[in-house]
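Quiz preparation item.
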């Protein structure tokens, strides 16, 4: 039983792209961050999820051994193994690759692989279900298209997590399928809901249209991620360049400071090494000459004179310079020869007091 594509699209497009909130129990499980591997779902031949970039699953799935349940997880969040077992028992093993995992883990896989989730809620007792499963969902064209382009997840509409999803999405009739985009937070981004029987061609055409119209969002996400990565790289490069420039500037300042200090030390050394030639004339006509450092104090000249013991020169005397005349006594003892103007040479007279 099928309906014209126009009628089907009119019934579906009214629900295009809406946000619904996940049930609280599922949201709490997302918050707890339960490990995907603990569920034991994934590629059913291996009892684990496939690694990244896994090949497209085969179209004939065998499921002779069921993965054990993890009793630390609530029953309504366990992989819906009853759906897979009942579906294969009634319709065989040729069907889309339904991942035996929680729905939130299917969303995680879809986000990582940048795909949509194809969600199927199975209503075993609905009169349209057998026809849809045998003649549409399990046909080779639908299986190949879903396995190549979607992450498929299924659940029984009146049991376990499938019941929670049915309560969230509120299907008006069955068969019920939905295309869900990975979304942040505890919301579902429902891109398209499909209710009622459809032919394989109609289903593939609708899914293909969704990929054409909405699939660009993944390209935009990749472009945004690449743009962010490049922005981070540029920021690190700018920070490294700024640090190098700052380090170089500090090194230059340190170099200039060292040069200035070296220059000052050299100047001080030159000043200290500069000599002042002093000629002293005594009252009795004697003359004595002595070299002093320019940084020596005038007091050293007095000590030098006292050490000579020249006759007629007692303790009370002062030094006098002519042209212009200046007198140097005890009050000038702390003055350096350089400050007194005695460099490079000076003639002083002893004047008795």
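Solution:
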């Amino acid at each position: 039983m099928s309906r014209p594509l126009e009628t089907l699209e009119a019934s579906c497009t009214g629900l295009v792209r809406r946000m619904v909130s996940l049930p609280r129990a599922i949201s709490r499980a997302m918050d707890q961050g339960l490990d995907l591997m603990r569920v034991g779902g994934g590629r059913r031949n291996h009892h684990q999820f496939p690694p990244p970039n896994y090949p497209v699953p085969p179209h004939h799935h065998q499921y002779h051994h069921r993965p054990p349940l993890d009793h630390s997880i609530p029953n309504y969040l366990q992989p819906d193994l009853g759906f897979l077992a009942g579906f294969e028992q009634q319709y065989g093993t040729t069907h889309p690759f339904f991942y035996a995992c929680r729905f939130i883990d299917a969303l995680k896989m879809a986000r990582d692989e940048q795909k949509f989730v194809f969600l199927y809620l199975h209503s075993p007792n609905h009169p349209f279900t057998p026809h849809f499963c045998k003649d549409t969902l399990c046909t080779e064209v639908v299986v190949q298209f879903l396995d190549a382009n979607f992450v498929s997840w299924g659940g029984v509409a009146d049991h376990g997590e499938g019941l929670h999803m049915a309560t969230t999405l509120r299907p008006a009739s069955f068969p019920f399928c939905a295309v869900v985009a990975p979304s942040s937070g505890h919301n579902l981004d429902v891109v398209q809901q499909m209710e009622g029987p459809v032919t394989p061609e109609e289903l593939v055409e609708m899914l293909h249209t969704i990929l054409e119209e909405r699939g660009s969002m993944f390209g935009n996400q990749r472009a945004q991620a690449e743009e962010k990565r490049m922005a981070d790289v540029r920021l690190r490069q700018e920070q490294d360049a700024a640090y190098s420039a700052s380090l170089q500037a500090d090194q230059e300042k340190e170099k200039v400071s060292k040069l200035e200090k070296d220059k000052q030390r050299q100047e001080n050394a030159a000043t200290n090494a500069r000599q002042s030639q002093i000629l002293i004339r005594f009252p009795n006509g004697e003359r004595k000459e002595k070299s002093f450092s320019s940084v020596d104090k005038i007091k050293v000249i007095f000590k030098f004179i006292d050490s000579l013991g020249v006759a007629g020169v007692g303790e009370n005397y002062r030094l006098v310079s002519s042209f212009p005349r200046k007198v140097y006594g005890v009050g000038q003892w702390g003055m350096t020869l350089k400050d007194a103007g005695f460099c490079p040479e000076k003639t002083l007279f002893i004047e008795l007091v």
